[in-house]
Design a protein that fits this description.
By secondary structure, this protein is α/β, with parallel strands linked by helices. Helix content is 22%, strand content 28%. Strands 1, 2, 3, 4, 5, 6, 7 and 15 form an 8-stranded mixed β-sheet that branches. Strands 10-11-12-13-14 form a 5-stranded mixed β-sheet, covered by helices on one side. Strands 8-9 form a two-stranded antiparallel ribbon. Helix 4 links the parallel strand 11 and strand 12. The longest helix is centred in the last third of the chain and has 18 residues. The protein starts with a strand and ends in a 7-residue tail after the last strand.
């Protein structure tokens, strides 16, 4: 499976380019279609939320053509009800995955609990090119209990999205490596890059085989995951 991990803003150009490069799945970082709204206490950022399902998500799926898309739009379910929604789907498919981030964080420069509520419900997976894929968003990637829930759901692949500065990104990568290796789960995580006048996010991507081996880019931003071994 060929995965395109896209940390930079500018999804409208990046998604069709990744599809043209032969990506089977295109992964976008946390808050894929908006600013990182939780960087300060400006309540005006609520206006960036879209009614669920996000129209921008639907447009991005169209641009992906036949490739799967993994993204996390900022969505509203009604007056004062906001979520960070993880979505996986592709054009023309009735098989779609929705996961609402369960662990919004609260710290200086990371006021997520102010801008969206934690999601509820059990982890689910979706079959992507033979892999049972689950979504993990932001702080979930550093939480052992969240990893345990993904393992219990039978996932063989984690599609992760984060928005981390250098120190937190290093911690996220370390924990993901440990958990993936211990549980023999493949990993594809994309970390948001910095934007002008925004937080100093580190960007970057982490791709691991189920054996915990790093997958090297076959082209810029492209990672080829070996076919899943079947019994």
């Amino acid at each position: 499976m060929r995965a395109a991990l896209v940390p930079e803003p500018g999804w409208e150009a990046a998604v069709p380019l990744a599809a043209a490069a032969g990506a089977d799945i295109i992964c976008l970082p946390l808050l894929s279609f908006s600013s990182y709204v939780a960087s300060d206490l400006d309540r005006g950022s609520y206006q960036e939320a879209e009614r669920a399902p996000s129209a921008t998500w639907s447009r991005a799926v169209e641009l992906a053509g036949g490739a799967w898309l993994a993204a996390s739009p900022y969505e509203s379910e009604g007056e004062g009800v906001f979520y960070l929604s993880g979505r996986v789907g592709r054009l023309g498919s009735s098989e779609n995955l929705l996961w609402r981030q369960s662990l919004p964080e609260s710290a200086e420069g990371r006021y997520e609990t102010m801008f969206w509520s934690p999601g509820h419900g059990s982890v689910e997976t979706i079959t992507v090119e033979g892999w049972e894929a689950a979504l993990m968003l932001g702080g979930e990637l550093r939480d052992p209990a969240s990893w345990a829930a993904v393992v219990d759901a039978g996932a063989s692949l984690v599609l992760g999205a984060s928005a981390e500065t250098a120190d937190l990104w290093a911690e996220t990568a370390r924990i993901a490596n440990q958990m993936a290796t211990r549980n023999r789960i493949a990993v594809m995580i994309v970390n948001r890059s910095a934007q002008e006048s925004g937080p100093d996010f580190a960007g970057g991507a982490l791709a691991l085989s189920p054996a915990g081996e790093p997958i090297v880019e076959s082209a810029p931003g492209i990672f080829d995951l070996p076919a899943r071994a079947t019994s």
